[in-house]
Write a structure and sequence with these properties.
The complex is a heterodimer of chains A (about 140) and B (about 400). With about 140 residues, chain A is α+β, with helices and mostly antiparallel strands. Chain A is about 45% helix and about 20% strand. Chain A has a single domain (about 5-135), classed as Sufe protein. Chain: A (Alpha-Beta Complex). With about 400 residues, chain B is an alpha/beta fold. Chain B folds into two domains: about 5-15 and about 290-395, Aspartate Aminotransferase, domain 1; about 25-285, Aspartate Aminotransferase, domain 2 (3-Layer(aba) Sandwich), CATH 3.40.640. Classes of the chains: A alpha+beta (about 140), B alpha/beta (about 400). The interface between A and B is medium-sized, with 16 and 14 residues.
Amino acid sequence: MDNETKREIIMENYTHPLNRKRMDGCGYYKVNTNNASCIDNIDIYVKFENDLIKDITFEGEACAISISATSVMINNLIGKTKEEALEFIKEFEQMTEGKTYNSELLKDANAYNDIYKQGNRKTCATLPFRGLQKAILENK
Amino acid sequence: MNREDFPLLKQDIIYFDNSATSLKPKCVIDKIADYYTNYSANAHRGDYDLSFKVDQEYEQTRTLVKDFLNAKSLEEIIFTSGTTESLNMIAHGFFEDLLEPNDEILLTTSEHASNVLPWFRLANKLGVKINYIPLDDNYYVTLDNLKKVVTPQTKVISLAGITNVIGDKRPIKEITEYAHAHNIFVVVDAAQMIPHMRVDVSDLDVDFLAFSGHKICGPTGVGVLYGKKELLEHLEPTNLGGGMNESFDSPDQVYLKPLPTRLEAGTPNIAGVIGLGEAIKYIESIGYTKINDQVHNLRKYLISKLLPIKYIDIINLESDSGIIAFNVSNIFSQDIAYYLNKYNICVRAGNHCAKILKNAVGVTNTVRISLYFYNTYEEIDNLVELLSDYDKIVKEMI
């Protein structure tokens, strides 16, 4: 993926994020995810149906990297099973650590494949994934 | 000015986060290295020359701090790890024994976490109440607003001398005068005050005051708790241990040393204290007048350059310190900080540990620039140039 494409994915998802809305109640499970070292702070709402992730929304205040990564995550993981989602999250984290990962699986989330070079932004990109992972593990 | 004193400034870095911590001049670094290199014995073990030298240097700093603050005696100067520890000692060691259910503590909504959470704990533990002095339209504290919320139950007012988000100076002397006439104690968090103005505890007549060394060009991990002697006598030590006791045989036979040693249990941060002494000498050698003239002129210059930029919203046009808090329209403050970091400019984004201020200001997060005397007009020009190009910000913020 070239830099211009990465930039487009990040900016598009930042300026027009998917499912940015509060879903208190309505059968959604809410988790908060935040970074100790910066001010990103996001609530993630997940609707499970048995093993399936039916819907994900979010609300919060965070930087361009965090917001866009949340949107990309939502776009990729709605309709997936819990196991598939955990696998995706694992691969995403591998990527942000600069390790070998399944780039085919991550699709447009490959836009963050350089983030491991910026120590202080790595946690911004992984923030929503850590939140969703928590929600899944708490609903296993 | 005085840039040549700061080794870090030899790097290609523009440092605008002075409210978080100030840079360290070579004389302070050398003083600390000298201790570790040439006489790194423990304090208060005067049996040999090396340790005697440590005592001399350590206690000399206490004299320096006493004179710096114009305190009445050396017993009123306690070395701590910083403002946070000092404030916790005051709340926990003094007021916990004094306050009763339904007593009231007065704070403001723009206090730093370290001047809020210790009081919250007391509120939960003792059933005392927390009230807030309302801020005026500029987020300033006024004596009139204080008078509106003082009640017969008010026992203590704890507030910053200068705040860390807005940078406003509080009328401490007037507050103390009024408070004492109503039998209310006054605690001052001077962390942001000490870098910018002469703090005269006798003139201000405060009961307790706390500051950190690292905000005035000193080392991290060291600070001061000032208290009036007759009050410190009643401050229960948080830490018990070596150095602070006279003798002990059994639980009912523990005898503690007099002030100030009683409140400094364990091996202190010797290098830090000695370094703090050097920092105070350094600040005094420049003088607050020169420091402030420079900071105020730089701030005025920066404001004049930012004002014409339409998409920049400055939160605090007025300020008594070197702080400018602002936001860039439609861009998260942290993205601005990341953008500037690409050009080696260090600024802070966030709520700056004043989490309840957002309700008053209506803004959760800001970009904060905090200036000190070694900043320059050229550095400001560099910053402003980067902030003047909105498209460039958007392009480079990720």
